[in-house]
Design brief:
Blueprint: H1 3-17, H2 23-38, H3 46-53, H4 61-79, H5 108-119, H6 124-140, H7 144-149, E1 155-156, E2 161-164, E3 173-176, H8 179-195, H9 215-229, H10 244-259, H11 264-275, H12 280-284, H13 291-305
Antiparallel strand pairs: 1-2, 2-3
Helix pairs in contact: 1-2, 2-4, 3-4, 5-6, 5-9, 6-8, 6-10, 10-13
Length: 309
């Protein structure tokens, strides 16, 4: 076993112990270490890292930059063990042209249209599952992966709380639900149990086969619902995504606070905790997601400073 082969699992164990999952990074670094072994390299150099990062033919610049970034983190760890390790500079292979996707902000009418389309799905279990899943995403701001991973014992209908375990960065949290949300979840649970008497999973939301939902199943059905509601055919509007329910929840919450004259800065840590963000800085990104939010924020700033913003 080479030094790099021995160091890689130690590095991944350390980072994962800090809450990082590193599924993709682990796969990339395994490939990099194999490339280094084949080249006879016993330490990381900038030339070695660049040679591996640029291997994929016709790959997008952002993906090449992502590959080099994975090596950069590993090299930083290795340099504490082997001072001869070279760390590729940040920005050495910039991901030119990459822009985070513009979020689609769902209106109430959009959500109602999607719920109606979901009710028309067949068979009945598929219909009930997607109607309730979309409704929960719209009113909770949960990540789609968090909803998929919910088990039945993590949906406490008595105390009106969901327990989200081992989410992003390994964090867990409790999410309080409105009574109307709890009632919708209770109706779904009863219907699910009547339609699926022998589930293959402990998952709260199940597929037509009684198994836990997968990303591919959700994506395929959601694309169908977008076509049926024509939400994907609006000119000049970004294509809606499942994750945009989370953006919409955050933006609508902030809009409501601004309009009600609530101290948004004081409330932001509460919203960050509810959404499962590590710190409020991640939540402030949503301020740029809607022009209406920016206008309200600017208006408040103008009132505070007495000067046009």
């Amino acid at each position: 076993m080479t030094d790099l082969q021995q160091a890689l699992p130690e590095y991944l164990t350390l980072r994962r112990g800090l809450g990082y999952k590193l599924h993709e990074v682990g796969r990339l670094l395994t490939s990099f270490v194999a490339f280094a072994d084949q080249a006879g390299a016993c330490t990381v150099t900038i030339d070695l890292a660049l040679a591996w990062a640029t291997l994929p033919a016709k790959a997008a610049p952002v993906y090449i930059a992502h590959r080099l970034s994975a090596v950069r983190g590993f090299a930083g760890y290795l340099q504490t063990i082997d001072p001869t390790t070279q760390i590729p500079a940040a920005g050495l292979l910039p991901g030119r042209g990459y822009q985070p996707p513009t979020p689609y902000l769902y209106s109430d009418d959009d959500v109602l249209a999607l719920l109606a389309a979901a009710r028309a799905l067949t068979p009945p279990l598929r219909s009930a599952t997607f109607e309730t899943l979309i409704g929960l995403l719209a009113v909770s701001g949960l990540r789609i992966g968090e909803v998929m991973r919910l088990d039945r014992d993590e949906v406490n209908l008595t105390d009106e709380v969901l327990t989200v375990r081992n989410s992003k960065f390994g964090r867990s949290r409790e999410v309080l639900c409105h009574r109307s949300t709890v009632e919708a979840l209770r109706v779904y649970a009863d219907r699910r149990d009547g339609l699926c008497t022998a589930p293959r999973s402990a998952s709260f939301f199940v597929s037509t086969r009684g198994a836990r939902l997968t990303h591919s199943t959700i994506h395929r059905t959601f694309q169908l619902l977008l076509r049926q509601t024509r939400l994907d055919q609006r000119p000049g509007v970004c294509r809606p995504r499942v994750h945009d329910f989370r953006h919409s929840f955050a933006v609508n919450t902030l809009l409501r606070w601004y309009r009600d004259g609530i101290d948004v800065q004081a409330r932001m840590p509460l919203l960050s905790t509810y959404l499962g963000h590590i710190n409020p800085a991640a939540t402030y990104w949503y301020l740029s997601a809607a022009p209406e939010l920016m206008a309200l924020a600017a208006e408040l700033l103008e009132r505070f400073t007495g000067e046009p913003s």
